[in-house]
Amino acid sequence: MKTMIERASGSKGSDRVVVIGGGLSGLAVASRIQQSGQALRRPVEVVVLESKDRVGGVIATDHRDGFMLERGPDSFITNKPWAMDLCRRLNLDDQLIEADPTYRRSFVVRKGKLAAVPEGFVLMAPHRLAPVLSSPILSLRGKLRLLAEALIPRREGPGEESLAAFARRRLGREAFDRLVQPLVGGIYTGDPNNLSLRATLPQFLAMENEHGGLIRAAWRRRKESDARIETESSGARYGMFVSLAEGMGALPQALAASLDAGTVKTNSPVRRISRSSTGSGWVVELLNGPALEADAVVATTEAHAAARMIDGHDASLALQLRAIPYASSIIVNVAYRCDRVKHTLDGYGFVVPAVENRRIFAASFLNVKFPRRAPEGTALIRVFVGGASQPELFDLDDDAVRQVVAAELGELIGATGPPLLLEIARHARTMPQYVLGHLEAVESIRRKAAMHSNLFLTGVAYDGVGIPDCIRAAEATADAVVARLAAAGSIAAA
């Protein structure tokens, strides 16, 4: 081809794997392949191409004036082992910190006021009924309907059910509107009316199928293990969340530092990928450098970005990738002096039901949730704007976003005066929406991608949006890459 190509694959006695994307998925893929390569006779060269000037993707931590600002996720859940395992392999054990147990609760907005999520109410399952019945969040009618969940038969018949339809059917409309929708929306930045229950929270479908209902299943599980952490926490299961002492940005940074020197190439956006003229490998064309030949390519970017790169080679696969919808959101880190906030901030944060018609959908009190996030006497709050339910808010300019945040926090927690700090992070089309039919769509994408030898897809678009799920999928993909090359005879096992 006319484009200058850097090194024919295998010409230096090694195989080359090009990983597109230097976020957590891409770095985890590269790390796993290099670890596997140490036990193989033939070396594997891994190249990670990242379009931005830093690694980590949406995970980033900034330090400013004594504040620790998380521009993306601020923690990860521990009941899935893959993130904890990775931290241990990277010798980050001593940095792991648990959420402060002092105020282990969250709030939900009810008529402009913050009310505590009932203790033991986990996303959709009430593990304890007394706190629900005494909560001001639901009316008497809503509480009675929730109690009737134990009498609702399991759903029969074919067809996929949305998360919203499931919650309304089992718990009633009010419990969905006032509890389930804001709690789930805060996790997926999505609209539960469109989200697939099977693809997002299949454990609740299993609870219905195995035990006949959510209350029955929750009681049985609590009886079997009274010490389960999730039965003692509320809402988003904050008791199972951990972070890193230096912020979540330390995770991708440590992962990148563990790779062989020269593995990661930042400021290296990819134009397209295509088959090599020899037909035995791939050519990865860059926007600002020579093309790379590779024995295998792993795309870890958003599905729509992968579609753009593969479009010229397989337009049908690109079309399927583009069909995965994404939501955009804004995270605003804002700090106040504590005496400028009327609310006592005696919890980890709050979520906002869509029926409240407000312009933010959640906020996290980061200085309460984790230690050493803000100077003494100050409050650091992360505010979430936009998402799938209010996509128009993402288009607001920075001044308008500042006004929205000031107005909403003023009304909801009594924040007054100019903030000590306000930092806006925009995440355009970064959160995939697992809508109805998602699992079937991913299966079809995987079948089509498998028709192209040594082309692999992984990332949050397919198998889970949480950090542990992201790591699990990336490492499984890396294992598949090594196995494929070995089966093809490119790698001779030691």
Number of strands: 23
CATH superfamily of the largest domain: FAD/NAD(P)-binding domain
Shape: globular
State the name of the first-level CATH class of the largest domain.
Alpha Beta
The value of Rg in angstroms is 24 Å
* CATH topology group of the largest domain: FAD/NAD(P)-binding domain
Q: Termini separation (Å)?
A: 36 Å
Family: Belongs to the protoporphyrinogen/coproporphyrinogen oxidase family. Coproporphyrinogen III oxidase subfamily.
EC number: 1.3.3.15
Protein name: Coproporphyrinogen III oxidase
Pathway: Porphyrin-containing compound metabolism; protoheme biosynthesis
Structure at a glance:
It is found in: Cytoplasm. It is an enzyme of class 1 (oxidoreductase). With 494 residues, this protein is α/β, with parallel strands linked by helices.
